[in-house]
Request: fold
Amino acid sequence: MSNWRDEKAKANAQALARLTKRLPLAFPQAVLVRAKSCAYAPSTLRVAVDGYWRAHPLRADRLARALAARSGVPDGWSWRVGDPEAGLPATFRTPPAPYRETAFAKGAGFCCVCGQPVYRFGWHADLWNAGANRNATWHSACVTAWQFWNAPSGQTRLLRRLQGRRCRETKRRLLKTAEVDHRVPLFQVWRQHRDTPWPALLAYWGLPNLQVINREVHVEKCAVEAKGRRVVRVVAAELETTS
Reply:
């Protein structure tokens, strides 16, 4: 008979022993609890931290926006798109991040998403009194939050459970084909809410602006939005002609 279970248990025991041996006096207990409960124990403490945040993307979303609020918007920054060489996003669908732009980047030791110092293991608080990690430019939480903002459909199962498996628009049961949708479309954020102070803008990419709706409802919603955009373009063209 296969002895893979015994080998797996042995490997996990060895990994946890290595993890415990490297454990500093101060370490986030929630991360340690999850590491010990994993089917495959993480190999290093940094991997344990990354795994914790990947398992809790909504916590990462809230924390990243809270850290960004602590940093505030840099002087002279405005939301712009179109110049990737300067660190600007290529499209308005990418979340605005001033500290990723060349002109406002704080450099090593600071997170390029929220602008706050990065400490050991990619943590957001200096539990070790060791100062900022000058080799890091991302918080582990901000990595997960950035992935969540750019690809929320990857967390469809989590969002479905959060909504009680009910369509946010019709209140009916969600079908297997249900899709993640931005309640306020991102094109509308770019057109009408561009002057919203950063980091309040980030909420349009985070949980407050996300919903899971059935596919047919999503298609209908997108059609209405497309019609509205067309009307705006036609009216703008007519105004240019008359002027």
Summary: The CA atoms of residues 108 and 134 lie 5 Å apart. The chain has a mean pLDDT of 92.
